[in-house]
Amino acid sequence: MKSSVVIPTFNYGRYIAEAIGSALGQTLRPAEVIVVDDGSTDETAAVVARFGEKVRYIRQENAGVSAARNRGVAESTGELISFLDADDIWEPEKLEKQLAIFAADKRIGLVHCGMREFESNTGETLRVHLDGMEGDVADELLLWENPAVNAPGSSVLVSREAFDAAGGFDPRQKCGEDWDFCYRVARRYRVGSAPEPLVNYRSHSTSAHRNVKEMERGMTLFYEKAFAADAIGRNLRRRALGNFNRVLAGSYFRAGQYGDFLRMAAKSIWYRPAGIGYFAAFPLRMLKKQRTNLR
After folding, report:
1. How far, in Å, CA of 34 to CA of 41, rounded?
2. Residues 6 or more apart from 260 whose CB is under 8 A from it?
3. CA-closest candidate to residue 9, choices 206, 185, 184
4. What pLDDT, in 10s, does the model give residues 177-216?
5. Would you call 55 helix, strand, or coil by DSSP?
6. Is the alpha carbon torsion for 96, 82, 105, 117 positive or negative?
7. Element of type H or E holding 148
8. Checking CA distances to 44, which of 74, 227, 231, 253 falls within 20 to 30 Å?
């Protein structure tokens, strides 16, 4: 089957050559690689131009990563579409192994894979994530108890049929948009998984997931849409929201935003009272962090 690669980018000229190189270096070459430049003001255009006709370059006014991905899909011709963030890198067999999973099960609409998270400046491996799920995973995406889909921004290979059925990415979301998209696909199709670190995920200070406020806004919108569209029972809703607010609380705590941590912790306990024990250890962690900062 013909596959297309869509790379959205905004001011990632310092990274994008590695991303493009990893897409062009696949053991099973994609039919096309499309870079959608979402209004960059750095050297992105010049870097992409070095690849010549191997890469199709599209520039648009800044509209966000969701709009950039949607534009890339609209301009693509493949029956299968892969997304690669401009600061990430694929292993050479990424597409070949995922395409084999698609070929083995016609009910699958999306395939993801494991990832290696690495430190941007040193290349040091920080973590390896191999615990994604397969099959009917929509409820797991709601619950946030297990990492149902690994690195959805760069690991996902999706059929055009599934992309269209799900309605693409929501331009209103600047964070969590890939999670939201995977959920909408998973409500309609089975999900496949290649449990190998086929994506190298770059950890650096400008990563979108570090903006906790935007994460809260984007994922709150996700839950509002999911609960409005799908018949989800009360117990599942409360469990999902309890877990979601617990994750947010932890993110705010790590960011040093303790007022927001307390706000999210209280909401989490309201939805899932059994989670109170999880938060009991946070004051001690906070004290240790303050002592460390004073040294």
Report:
1. 19
2. 212, 213, 248, 252
3. 206
4. 999 999 999 999 999 999 999 999 998 765 555 689 999 9
5. coil
6. positive
7. none
8. 74
Question: Which residue in 193, 29, 170, 222 sits closest to 109, CA to CA?
Answer: 193
How do residues 99-151 score in pLDDT, each as one tens digit? Answer: 999 999 999 999 999 999 999 888 899 999 998 899 999 999 999 888 899 88
Angle at 211 between CA 245 and CA 35, to 5 degrees: 120
Give the residue from 118, 284, 144, 157 showing the smallest Cα distance to 219.
144
Q: What's the length of the chain?
A: 295
pTM of the complete model beyond 0.85: yes
For residues 20 and 18, give the distance between their C-alpha atoms in angstroms, rounded to a whole number. 6
Cα–Cα distance between 290 and 179 in angstroms, integer?
33
- Please give the structure tokens belonging to residue 240: 């999902």
Is the Cα torsion angle 21, 22, 28, 30 positive or negative in sign?
negative
